[in-house]
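Limitations
The structure tokens in this dataset are predictions for the assembled complex, not deposited experimental models. Users should treat interface geometry with appropriate caution, especially where small molecules or nucleic acid strands are included. An illustrative entry is reproduced here so readers can see what is and is not provided.
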Amino acid sequence: MGWERVYNLVRTIPRGRVVTYGQVASALRLKGGARTAGRALAACPSGRGIPWHRVAGAGGRLLIREPQASLQRKLLESEGVFFLSPLRFDLTAHSFRIATAKKRSSKHRPRRH
DNA sequence: CATCTGACGACCG
DNA sequence: GCGGTCGCCAGAT
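Predicted assembly:
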């Protein structure tokens, strides 16, 4: 399955901001929910400038296993994200609200759904 | 085709 | 806060 949609979305996350797997799944309406978003990131190709480290678990937790977790933490801290513990960071202070991709013209304002 | 395995998250004790 | 259960589903074995 093409995870391109996921990667494209992840690429829009600003520096120092973080979104959860659930947010990604919700924004893209991924079939399997948050877990599917996780699989997409797990298969994330490296060396393509995808800020995979800006996606974490709900509540601001790193769910990835070591040694990757340490790398993610390092990357996030380098962007100013404050960690309360090795695997927990202050999500409320760094969460990024994904723009609801509603492509509607200003006229007609068709209702959602 | 049958199972197992997760970079999830909501719930519950 | 911590650990267990459950629903979820694409790949790997």
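Some entries come with short summary sentences. For this one: Residues 20-22, 25, 32-42, 44, 52, 55-59, 62-65, 68-69, 72 of chain A lie near DNA strand B (CB under 10 Å from a C1').
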